[in-house]
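Worked Example 4.2. Read the sequence first, then its structure tokens.
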Amino acid sequence: MHVVTQSIDVEHYARAREMGEYERARERTRLGLRGCVFVYSGRLWSKKGLDELFEAYGSVRSQCEDTSLLIVGNGVDEERYRKLGDWIPGVVFAGFVQPKMLPTYYALGDVLVFPTLGDPYGLVVEEAMAAGLPVICSEAAGEIKSRLPDGKAGYIVPAANARVLAERMLLLARDRALRSTLGLEAARIVTTKSHEQYAIDFERFIDRLLAAPRRTTTEAVVMRQVGRVLMAARDRSSHPAASIGAGQLPAQAMKLHA
């Protein structure tokens, strides 16, 4: 098992922290955002936990009016969520946004919420962390517990649990200093998720692979023979007269395949 960093363009998303207060206030006013702005960025699809997000935000809004929910993205369930948003004050839909413009929208927010019901990873978490946002994420985003220290750079909540999600959202909505502390730590942690670090990790992976002793099992020997035959076939494919059939594979390989 070799671990290789899943990287993002850290410098690109960190530009969100460069937006001035005047420009930020102006853009928030233009979009109708106020107070603590929770941001969701991704597909508008029920499997992303958006039903729970809208339920949780509705609860937060009823207890703390000075909040907004900024939805960035589009998807198969967009129409349904837009109709749902009509009934909840403070919900703003930005629509689909190109990656180059995402830092601007992260800059307008205060907290990223990613309540997915099941994701193999979810790069949006690292994007928001690079932008200096604390993150509230469900436990269903891959190995999120190793990426987002709970209580230090944000919070991890159970998937499909609107009540706990609302509790964490309300906590951050009411505590600006806490948001700032968690956001600074998030930005510090994510500096290791750069493309450069990915390249370093991948080189280490290749070095370890090449340094590993060759396997001597029958299966390994046979597969090396198959590999040589296939490579030879590839080299001959540029010549019309050259071809290779199943009958030319080593007998052991045919038996293994069967």
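Now turn to a second chain, presented in exactly the same format:
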Amino acid sequence: MPLRETPLWLDKTSPPHVTTLVVIAGVSALSMNIFLPALPSMASYFEADYALVQLAISAYLGVTALLQIIIGPLSDRYGRRPVLLVGIGTFVFATLGCVFSTSIESLLFFRMLQAGVASGIVLSRAIVRDMVPPEQAASMIGYVTMGMSVVPMIGPALGGVLNEAFGWQASFVMLGVLGLVVWGLVWLDLGETNRDKSDSFGAQFRAYPDLVRSRRFWGYALTAGFASGAFFAFLGGAPFVSTVILGLNSAEMGGYFGIVAFGYMAGNFLSGRYARRAGINRMMLSGSIVAASGALISMGLFEAGILHPLSLFGPMFLVGVGNGLTLPSANAGMISVRPKLAGSASGLGGAIMIGGGAALSALTGVILSEKSGALPLFLLMLAVSILAVLTSLYVIRVARQAGALGAELPD
């Protein structure tokens, strides 16, 4: 049956409603951070080192990065809808495994399988690009991500309360229930938006060289990678700094995480409002500068001896705003360099972004200690934010030479 042009709610013969895209991406984001406050409890429950339990974040991000390389081409070949249904179904099964894990090894195994939900983040971007042109895509991705950011805003707070009341398993129970609901929503509402499927899966990988030869694709991908890297470094290091250095319990820490997510929502609102007017390249540059200022302020407060939760989480509001300004435009740029490869570009770019985040998250677990304090975390966040500024400037330079996005010109 042909796909209708206008989205109709709960009609799988039409493009998905924007609410569906928000929920799909939201459960993917929630799976990353709802159990952050429970990490110390999980380490105690399994009698494992914090660095090992922290692999539930960093190794999960690494598997997510690898999957995104495959998810994009699969969706370009077979369509967005079937890949989403399989990915979210795998997530529900793996979440059940996490709940009943009796060892840290089995928990980490099922946690890696949970990465199937990454199809939600990858394909929500590709679906938007299927529906609208580049500048409008940046605006729509901004609004989708703004709505999605409400989920991680309350996720750590909710996870902290669940952990205090019922134990670490409660967060995974909630993820499983939400996964079932989202699977049903995709089945009922998400019509296939990929109307130009490739001839074969191999053809998609053979098209990768054309994508990776694009200087502008690498500029957008690296900007997204460095910008999100600051946030992922914070995800990896904030639980340690909060509990060991600041003495917060899991519920308190989860509540403070909402400040960062609120900043991210605000940045995405600004992207949705101004990306079409300002242009995606200027939005990226502005966001990267704002994020760098947040890391710098936190570092200054801690170095001045002001060891308060707001010294850590307050300036991270600016990191959230910066990411909200940068990522929608960087993602829209990535998937618009070669429009016929939107799924592949979203997957490869997402792999670069999440893979870098995994490495930075793992690195923070290694470099932080009671002796070092929080300084290594802030230095790392500041360094990658400055790199995002530099790659944004690089994209602006290349754009002046190569012309409009999507043009079949060497870039």
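Notes for the reader: The chain has 17 helices and no strands. Residues 21 and 124 are 6 Å apart (CA to CA).
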